[in-house]
Write a structure and sequence with these properties.
By secondary structure, this protein is α/β, with parallel strands linked by helices. It is 38% helix and 16% strand. The protein has an 8-stranded parallel β-sheet, with helices on both faces. β7, α9 and β8 form a beta-alpha-beta unit. It starts with a strand and ends with a helix.
């Protein structure tokens, strides 16, 4: 299978400067993109969540690009840009029998009602389950993901209302504290057991799942986190345990990078390329 990189240089979801430069930075490092979906500014309504109309337009076009890539028999590897893009990348493929492995420091399960920041990059996993602002739910339609088919790994920063929502939906997550206390082998066993209950997943990797002392190139760092080798092991485990039909790598902010985050991304890109090729050899 051929891998197709789709660039999504968006920062309107986080409203923090830098992530919109991610694709240019990665191109400078030698990554070639099959297409880049750019943001087109739209008029916004005062009092709404931030950049709602702009992101509705952008996500709708990104969803179509990912869907077309899949229908062409290519593997969509989407690069961001902030995590709001996952609304589109998850909605682009059928989710009736598909799960999600979400590697992140954050839950991204706020809704427009629970969010204090009103930033859409904190909402994509809620929207994927069918919870959130009606305009964002338009992108998903009936193509939602069942909550019991989602596992979050590396969590260490949840809003109080967000955690209540996640619990009420029956989500499962592994905190970074659990990883540190129980060990990485235990973590991999938990992830593998989850994946073996599924036939297919979307894999979403947020660069802020990493320890910012090791990989600082993100917009919203949280102390602690995964090492580069652990992150690569989890992604590899995903491909070895189940069919991965799409993947995104998000929240890379080159403004804060010192080379280590982009180095991890290039290693991850090579890993995914080998796994995608290997699926058909």
């Amino acid at each position: 299978m051929k891998l197709r990189r789709i660039g999504a240089p968006v920062n309107e979801g986080c409203d923090i400067h830098g992530s919109q430069l991610a694709i240019l930075a990665l191109q400078a490092k030698g990554l070639n993109f099959g297409t880049v979906v750019t943001v087109e500014k739209k008029n916004e309504i005062e009092g709404e969540i931030l950049h709602l109309n702009t992101l509705h337009d952008f996500l709708s076009r990104l969803k179509l690009e990912v869907s077309n890539t899949n229908q062409a028999g290519e593997f969509p590897l989407i690069y961001g840009g902030d995590h709001s893009l996952a609304i589109a990348t998850i909605a682009a493929l059928p989710n009736k029998n598909r799960g999600v492995l979400w590697i992140d420091a954050h839950g991204d399960c706020n809704t427009h009602l629970s969010s204090e920041s009103k930033r859409i990059h904190g909402m994509p996993l809620a929207v994927a389950q069918g919870h959130g602002h009606p305009k964002l739910l338009e992108i998903v339609g009936n193509n939602t993901v069942d909550s019991d088919k989602i596992l979050l790994v590396g969590i260490r920063s949840l809003d109080e209302k967000e955690e209540v929502l996640m619990t009420s939906w029956g989500l499962k997550w592994i905190t970074q504290d659990e990883i540190d206390r129980k060990g990485f082998e235990w973590t991999k066993d938990q992830v593998k057991s989850f994946l073996e209950t599924l036939d297919e997943i979307h894999l979403s990797f947020d660069c802020d799942s990493m320890d910012p002392a090791l990989c600082p190139g993100v917009s919203t760092p949280v102390s602690g986190g995964l090492t580069p080798d652990q992150a690569l092991d989890l992604v590899s485990l995903g491909f070895e345990s189940v069919t991965v039909s799409s993947m995104d790598i998000v929240e890379f902010n080159p403004v804060h990078d010192q080379g280590k985050t982009s180095e991890l991304i290039l290693r991850m890109d090579a890993l995914v390329q080998s796994k995608v090729n290997g699926e058909c050899t």
